[in-house]
Amino acid sequence: MNTLTDYLSDPRFAGIEPFSSKVWLSSPTMHGDEKRWVDDALDTNWVSTVGANINEVERMTAEKIGKKYAVGLATGTAALHLAIRLCGEKLYGQALAGHGTLEGHRVFASDMTFDATVNPIAYEGGEAVFIDTEYDTWNMDPLALKKAFEIYPDVRLIVIAHLYGTPGKIDEIRRIADAHNALIVEDAAESFGATYKTADPRRYLSAGQSDVSSSLSDASDESALQTGMFGDVSILSFNGNKVITGSAGGVLLTDSIEDANKVRKWSTQSREDAPWYQHEELGYNYRMSNIVAGVIRGQLPYLEQHIAQKKAIYERYRIGLCDLPVQMNPFDAGRSEPNWWLSCLLINEDAMCPFVRSETESLYIHESGRSCPSEILEAIAAFNAEGRPIWKPMHMQPIYRMHGFVTRSGNGRAGSNAYIQEMKTADVGMDIFRRGLCLPSDNKMTPEQQDRIIEIIHRCFQ
Question: What predicted TM-score, i.e. pTM, was given to this entire model?
């Protein structure tokens, strides 16, 4: 590990100047409309958890995705919690106060994701079992999911995420879920605006949905649906670094008016219909603020513009780095159109320099023609730009080390034996984490700034 000044004085980087202003991984991009709607909330004194901005955000997001109802909530994590609680109650009934709806039950979950995807399983007392990743899209591996049901046939809930804005293998996962009568919570926090071409679009449209035009993408094929359409319950996030932001905020998406009303109740402390404050079930202070909704309302018309800017960044990296022993984060071009939230890099195995990580630090030895994520991230940071490691898989996190982990070969834990020589079990998520990194993907980054970052990456391999 070098200091930042080591890179600035390293002859490999001679002639490259640090950025005068930081180039961010992914920061908010404001347009002015946001202020209009925030000012409207202030001027009309609707600053709490009701108001026209919330109503419009719910209408606009439901219409964009194609779900009948959207419920505005304080964060994407709050939306995930209530989505998982909702499914837990559907499957196992209402829990007593002080207990979760998933107590005594396992839940299958994406492994390579941010921990907000899976922590609500623990909030509800459930035990997450992590499903390994596939190399084609960096999402949940359907073959590993199928194997997981062989090991844990009683599971009835699956939580999936679309990593870095790239849809996973949704049809395969849905077929497996249906075969086992399992519900799906779809975490589309990172993939708002991404589409997936399903072989059976009507499978995801609720009975009685007469106007399907909003849920069928205008982009190309009628079978292309927005991510957020594929879960029994789905969520979006408007966190500060997302494609559309409100500084915070999230929505829960459903086709059930009963579920939407239940979530609205839970998110405002579960008050009963009585002249005093009366409660028959646990509630939360999870409702979206009308001020936060004002920012989101101003952002939403710019979704496609932001996605186009993100795609241009991905393409510039892809072309600019094509002569290096690296690959960009993959997607299924025949089935999906990502929202290109973050551009990522995976270094070829034979181009990795010696490199180790502890829980909090990393060390590497530079070799000509080789590099590693830590070297590239440190070099970028030295020149005042922000990258990030790939999400550390959940099965590797200290908090979840004793939880189940399933690969396409079966149980991913305790796979070695001191007394026999066996085939090593592939751990795809761990491999992508070891060799991968997220590149600066801010949609305000200029082509000249991006070219400088590309040049820095090239020189890391010298």
Answer: 0.94
On whether both 20 and 37 belong to a single domain, the answer is: no
Q: How many CB atoms lie within 10 A of CB 351?
A: 16
Closest CA to 391 of 379, 406, 375, 373: 373
Domain containing 195 equals 33-300
Question: Considering its fold, how many domains does the chain have in total?
Answer: 2
Q: 160 and 45, same structural domain?
A: yes
The DSSP 8-state label assigned to residue 134 in this structure reads -
CATH number, domain containing residue 217: 3.40.640.10
In a domain, 153, yes or no: yes
Cβ proximity of 316 and 450 under 8 Å: yes
**Integer Cα distance of 160 and 453 in angstroms:** 32
Q: Which residue has the tokens 């939306």?
A: 79
Distances (CA, A) of 59 to 133, 231, 250: 34, 19, 13
Do both 451 and 351 map to the same domain? yes
Question: What is the rounded distance in angstroms from the CA atom of residue 136 to the CA atom of residue 159?
Answer: 19
In a domain, residue 410? The reply is no
Residues 453, 440 contacting (CB under 8 angstroms): yes
Looking at residue 249, its amino acid is G
Please name the residues in contact with 233: beta carbons below 8 A apart, sequence gap of 6 or more: 83, 86, 87, 183, 185, 186, 252, 253, 254, 259
The amino acid that residue 119 corresponds to is N
For residue 119, give the H/E element and its range. helix 119-123
Among 249, 282, 300, give the residue marking a domain's end: 300
Secondary structure, 3-state, 76-87: HHHHHHHHHHHH
Q: Report pLDDT digits (tens) over 71-121.
A: 999 999 999 999 999 999 999 999 999 999 999 999 999 999 999 999 999
Q: Is residue 10 part of a domain?
A: yes
Quick check: 173 and 142 in contact, CB under 8 A? yes
How does pLDDT run across 142-198, given as a tens digit for each residue? 999 999 999 999 999 999 999 999 999 999 999 999 999 999 999 999 999 999 999
- Residues 340 and 72: their CA atoms lie apart, in Å, by 24
Distance from the Cα of residue 214 to its chain's centroid: 23
Residue 136: both structure tokens together: 């084609």
Pick from 253, 274, 300: which residue ends a domain?
300
Residues 216-228 have a mean pLDDT of: 69
Three-class secondary structure of residue 277 per DSSP: coil
| 417 inside domain | no
